[in-house]
Structure formats: structure tokens, C-alpha cells
Amino acid sequence: MDSHNQRLLGNTHPPDWVNPEPAQRYNLVVLVRKGDDKILGATIVASHAGDMISEITLAMVGGLGLKTLSQVVHPYPTQAEAIKKVADNYSRSVLLQAS
After folding, report:
1. pTM of the predicted protein model
2. Where residue 25 sits, what CATH number does that domain have?
3. Are 28 and 86 in contact (CB under 8 A)?
4. How far apart are CA 25 and CA 30, in angstroms?
5. Within 10 Å of residue 49's Cβ, how many Cβ atoms?
6. Residue 3 domain-assigned?
7. What is the tally of structural domains in the chain?
8. pLDDT higher than 80, residue 69
9. Which of 59, 67, 86, 99 yields a CA-CA distance of 20 to 30 A from 40?
10. CA-based angle 50:21:45, to the nearest 5?
11. Cα(70)–Cα(58) distance, rounded to whole angstroms?
């Protein structure tokens, strides 16, 4: 790697960088219609909640449900991973009801 690329890498990922530990719990509530995965609304109480709510509103406007959100690859460790966890919990509950 040449010195130019080393400088670029140093600017984007400083050598002393340590990834933060993800929180064990987030305050995220997604309302869905009974018997459906359609998202009716959501509340997020967390730092950077504004960064997370846009994904929910996009899904609502686009008519995407929690099943689709559970298939999205979310960056980890970030707070956006909480959206995937909510969607996965919904999918799990549907599977349990069907069995």
C-alpha cells in the first residue's frame, strides 16, 4: 500500500478506533395491523433516532412490511440493527402461530 492510500485509510479508520459496544436494548415500537405485517406507525426513543425512523417511514410509504425489513442487511454494530430485530421478532411470532 502506498503512502497516499495509507493516509486515506488513516482518515477513515484511525488506528486507535474501537467499535462501540451495541446497546442490549433499544426503545423501538413498531405498530402493525393484526394478521398482517403492514406497518401502521413507529416510535423510536434513542440517540440518532432520526437516522433510524427514515427507514420505517420509507417502508410505510412504499407499502413494505416487517417481513421485507427483516430481509434487509443492516450495518452492525449500529442502532439500525434494532429495526431488523423488531422485524425478525415479528416473523418469529408469525411462524410460531402457524405451527
Report:
1. 0.60
2. 3.30.390.30
3. yes
4. 15
5. 15
6. no
7. 1
8. yes
9. 99
10. 30
11. 14
